[in-house]
Amino acid sequence: MTESKITQLQPLPGDWQRALAVVAHPDDLEYGCSAAVAAWTDAGREVAYVLATRGEAGIDTLDPAVCGPLREREQRASAAVVGVGTVEFLDHRDGVIEYGTALRRDIAAAIRRHRPELVVTLNHRDTWGGVAWNTPDHVAVGRATLDAAADAGNRWIFPELVEQGLEPWNGVRWVAVAGSSSPTHAVDAAPGLDRAVRSLLEHRTYIEALTDQDPEAYVRDFLTETTTATGKRFGGTPAVAFEVFGR
Ligand SMILES: [Zn+2]
C-alpha cells in the first residue's frame, strides 16, 4: 500500500503565483482546503475557483431550481472569506457529471483562461481511504482535472479552444489533490484555520440540512479534527494534506 510508505508529508512547493482550484460542488473546497487557500492569498498569490456544478441536487428539501442559485451565492461568499474573488461555474449537472471529453475540454479551457502554475482538485480516487466510498462526481472531476492539466498545453487536442482565442497553457507544474487517500504533501493550516471555519459556515443552508448540531460547533470540530490528524504527519502543526502530481 502506498499510504504506509509515506510517513511524513512534505511541504507543498511554494514557488508559484497563480492557482486554479477545480471541484465538482459548492463546499468541496471548504470541507478540506480553504485554510491552505487563506494562507496562499495572504502571501499575495492569486487563487480562482471553478466548479463543475452549482450543487443543485445537494439538499433533499430544496428543489434544484431554488437550490442552485442559493448554493452559488453561498459559494461566492465562502470564497470571499479566504480572499478568492473569482468563482466560475461550468454548469454540468449535479450528481450525474460524466467523465469524458466534454468535461476535460471545459476544464482545459478554464486552465487556459487562468494560466495557473498550481491546479488544485478534490479526491479522484475510489474511496476516501478504507471503505468510505467516494462519489462519482468527485472521481469524474478529479480525474478530468488531472487530465486537463496536460490537455491545456496541447494545441491539437481541443483545436476549437484555440479558435475561441484560448492559446495553449503548458505552465501547470503540479496538480494537488485534496482529500486523497494517499497524500504526499501538506500546507500549514494554523494561520488560516479561523477563516476556514467561517468560510465553511457560509454554506449554512447545506450544513443546517446536514446536521442537527450547532453549525459553528459542527464546522469547527470537523476542521479541527481533520487538520489535527494531518498534522501528526506534518511536524505536529494542523495541516491540510494534498497528493501532489508533478508535471
Ligand atoms: Zn462534493
From TrEMBL:
Record-level Gene Ontology MF annotations: hydrolase activity
Sorted UniProt keywords: Hydrolase, Zinc
Highest taxon, organism lineage: Bacteria
Keyword Iron-sulfur among record annotations: no
Broad enzyme group: hydrolase
Entries under InterPro entries matching the protein: GlcNAc_PI_deacetylase-related (IPR003737), LmbE-like_dom_sf (IPR024078)
EC number in record: 3.5.1.-
Keyword Hydrolase: yes
Name by which UniProt lists this protein: PIG-L deacetylase family protein
Species this protein is from: Streptomyces cinerochromogenes
